[in-house]
Amino acid sequence: MSKANLIDGKAVAASVRSEITARAARLLAETGKRPGLAVVLVGEDPASQVYVRNKDRAAEACGFHSVKHTLAADTSEASLLALVTQLNEDDAIHGILVQLPLPGHIDETKVLRLIRPEKDVDGFHPVNVGLLATGARDTALVPCTPAGSLALLKRTLQTPLAGLNAVVIGRSNIVGKPMAALLLAESCTVTIAHSRTKDLPEVVRGADIVVAAVGRPEMVRGSWIKPGATVIDVGINRVPDPAKGEGATKLVGDVAFAEAAEVAGAITPVPGGVGPMTIAMLMANTLTAARRQLGVAPEPELF
Ligand SMILES: NC(=O)c1ccc[n+]([C@@H]2O[C@H](COP(=O)([O-])OP(=O)(O)OC[C@H]3O[C@@H](n4cnc5c(N)ncnc54)[C@H](OP(=O)(O)O)[C@@H]3O)[C@@H](O)[C@H]2O)c1
């Protein structure tokens, strides 16, 4: 039985970030401007606080102008909309990210749709969704987690993905759907599976590429994986870890890693796979947004 190659998302993300840092320095030399990222956090959700801190730190490490707005949990929708409007009009800010989830009294859709599409570095605005869906990826801002997953696939496979069978498990707007659109744009034959899919193991067995974005710990078993397939595990699930003591927890993906690694050709670990790529691609999107807004010619694609 073959042991899968481990896809080291941490290492790939570090190399992406170092290339972005170099490109940001060139942009500064050419234009006197730094890419500007504004991250907005409403409330005190601990996981969101960690994400926002990491994004802010990554932006600073890349040499960006980075601004963090932390608002109280009871901030009104009108105040948040006013802040987004102000950031939309701020020439020093090229990317705006409003950390989700927002408190229940705020209409998420309304807030996300107010962000100017060219500053929408999360890629959630319908204009960016539409550009990706209609094959105009070059002019869109693509959601960071699927973009990072595709980058890992391309680096791993080193050959065109055209003609490969890809199964994406999950159809969320944040991961599953944009992932499927990206794979289709690479000319894969794409199947999108979800909670109503019949005989999911059999569907997955036909896949050369499996992307799991479900949110169910270790749901995808090794016996579902076609020998030699490439497995990208987007899931991040916190589960009890009794081996480490009472109350201890650990992170696992949506794929039963040990089993799948016996069969797959290559697989991402959790943590250390897709996760680090998400922030790297946020930096890439911010740099892209800045170049477009400053009217500077695009640099070659990172992947
Ligand atoms: N690495 C990262 O940076 C990153 C970023 C974002 C998300 N994530 C992780 O990725 C996972 C998915 O996130 P998400 O936002 O896409 O989740 P989501 O919005 O909850 O969507 C989950 C999808 O999985 C499908 N599903 C649920 N149970 C299923 C089952 N038994 N069989 C087949 N499909 C099933 C759902 O189908 P229906 O549509 O039919 O309900 C849905 O489409 C989570 O673990 C999340 O933490 C990681």
TrEMBL record:
<dbReference type="GO" id="GO:0035999">
    <property type="term" value="P:tetrahydrofolate interconversion"/>
</dbReference>
<comment type="similarity">
    <text>Belongs to the tetrahydrofolate dehydrogenase/cyclohydrolase family.</text>
</comment>
<keyword id="KW-0521">NADP</keyword>
<dbReference type="InterPro" id="IPR020630">
    <property type="entry name" value="THF_DH/CycHdrlase_cat_dom"/>
</dbReference>
<keyword id="KW-0368">Histidine biosynthesis</keyword>
<dbReference type="InterPro" id="IPR020867">
    <property type="entry name" value="THF_DH/CycHdrlase_CS"/>
</dbReference>
<feature type="domain" description="Tetrahydrofolate dehydrogenase/cyclohydrolase NAD(P)-binding">
    <location>
        <begin position="143"/>
        <end position="293"/>
    </location>
</feature>
<keyword id="KW-0554">One-carbon metabolism</keyword>
<dbReference type="InterPro" id="IPR020631">
    <property type="entry name" value="THF_DH/CycHdrlase_NAD-bd_dom"/>
</dbReference>
<dbReference type="InterPro" id="IPR000672">
    <property type="entry name" value="THF_DH/CycHdrlase"/>
</dbReference>
<keyword id="KW-0028">Amino-acid biosynthesis</keyword>
<dbReference type="InterPro" id="IPR046346">
    <property type="entry name" value="Aminoacid_DH-like_N_sf"/>
</dbReference>
<keyword id="KW-0486">Methionine biosynthesis</keyword>
<dbReference type="InterPro" id="IPR036291">
    <property type="entry name" value="NAD(P)-bd_dom_sf"/>
</dbReference>
<dbReference type="GO" id="GO:0004488">
    <property type="term" value="F:methylenetetrahydrofolate dehydrogenase (NADP+) activity"/>
</dbReference>
<feature type="binding site">
    <location>
        <begin position="170"/>
        <end position="172"/>
    </location>
    <ligand>
        <name>NADP(+)</name>
    </ligand>
</feature>
<dbReference type="GO" id="GO:0000105">
    <property type="term" value="P:L-histidine biosynthetic process"/>
</dbReference>
<dbReference type="GO" id="GO:0004477">
    <property type="term" value="F:methenyltetrahydrofolate cyclohydrolase activity"/>
</dbReference>
<keyword id="KW-0511">Multifunctional enzyme</keyword>
<comment type="subunit">
    <text>Homodimer.</text>
</comment>
<dbReference type="GO" id="GO:0006164">
    <property type="term" value="P:purine nucleotide biosynthetic process"/>
</dbReference>
<feature type="binding site">
    <location>
        <position position="236"/>
    </location>
    <ligand>
        <name>NADP(+)</name>
    </ligand>
</feature>
<keyword id="KW-0378">Hydrolase</keyword>
<dbReference type="GO" id="GO:0005829">
    <property type="term" value="C:cytosol"/>
</dbReference>
<keyword id="KW-0560">Oxidoreductase</keyword>
<comment type="function">
    <text>Catalyzes the oxidation of 5,10-methylenetetrahydrofolate to 5,10-methenyltetrahydrofolate and then the hydrolysis of 5,10-methenyltetrahydrofolate to 10-formyltetrahydrofolate.</text>
</comment>
<keyword id="KW-0658">Purine biosynthesis</keyword>
<comment type="pathway">
    <text>One-carbon metabolism; tetrahydrofolate interconversion.</text>
</comment>
<protein>
    <recommendedName>
        <fullName>Bifunctional protein FolD</fullName>
        <ecNumber>1.5.1.5</ecNumber>
        <ecNumber>3.5.4.9</ecNumber>
    </recommendedName>
</protein>
<dbReference type="Pfam" id="PF02882">
    <property type="entry name" value="THF_DHG_CYH_C"/>
</dbReference>
<dbReference type="Pfam" id="PF00763">
    <property type="entry name" value="THF_DHG_CYH"/>
</dbReference>
<feature type="domain" description="Tetrahydrofolate dehydrogenase/cyclohydrolase catalytic">
    <location>
        <begin position="7"/>
        <end position="122"/>
    </location>
</feature>
<dbReference type="GO" id="GO:0009086">
    <property type="term" value="P:methionine biosynthetic process"/>
</dbReference>
